[in-house]
Design goal:
The protein has 182 residues and is mainly alpha-helical. 53% of the residues lie in helices and 4% in strands. It has a two-stranded parallel sheet. Strand 1, helix 1 and strand 2 form a beta-alpha-beta unit. The longest helix has 18 residues.
């Protein structure tokens, strides 16, 4: 094991295993496409198969707009919303099990229920364990934007924070992707 975790502060991207020279080229291309959607500050091992849907979607203005619309007030750049996003992502990844989510996050099951209710209020709809659009939006925000909603700027910041606290949908600024490989 390397210092600072299994990747030692590195970014390691793994494409699918395929036979022959053509398979190697295909695997390399998919690994590079995975790297294109991983935020430059994220470190660790990124396996194409674990992020295939996000790689196929890419990271562009349309996808970011989907994330903004889907997450609404849950996408606000506040610590409270970040905690709710983490809880909801874990809840969805564990099939909507309150008990398993509580065990994973080391909190009481009533805390999970409360957070899921708060998230549903911010989303403006009930959160079903099969909310694949919310799961994809949360995974995209984590992988491509390092879990951070774009920072609000200018005079709209206070109004936008108040809107997030009231559970209204926000229009967040896009994050540009200058680090993409050619």
């Amino acid at each position: 094991m390397l210092p600072d975790g299994p990747a030692g502060g590195l970014r390691v991207v793994v494409g699918p295993s395929r036979p022959g020279l053509g398979g190697f080229a295909s695997s390399h291309l998919q690994a590079r496409r995975t790297l294109d959607v991983v935020h430059p500050d994220k470190r660790g091992v990124f396996v194409y198969a674990d992020h295939e849907a996000l790689v196929l979607l890419g990271c562009n203005e349309e996808v970011d707009d989907f994330v903004r619309r889907t997450l609404g007030g849950l996408g606000a750049p506040l610590d409270h919303q970040a905690r709710l996003r983490h809880t909801v992502a874990t809840y969805l990844a564990l099939g909507g099990s309150v008990d398993r989510t509580a065990a994973e996050l080391a909190v009481h099951r009533n805390t999970i229920r409360y957070r899921v209710q708060q998230a549903a209020r911010l989303l403006g709809r009930n959160l079903a364990p099969t909310s694949s659009d919310v799961a994809i939006a949360l995974r995209h925000l984590d992988l491509s934007h390092d879990g951070q909603a774009a920072k609000l700027t200018g005079g709209n910041q206070a109004r936008s924070v108040r809107a997030a606290e009231a559970g209204r949908s926000l229009r967040l600024s896009p994050i540009h992707r200058p680090w993409r490989l050619a």
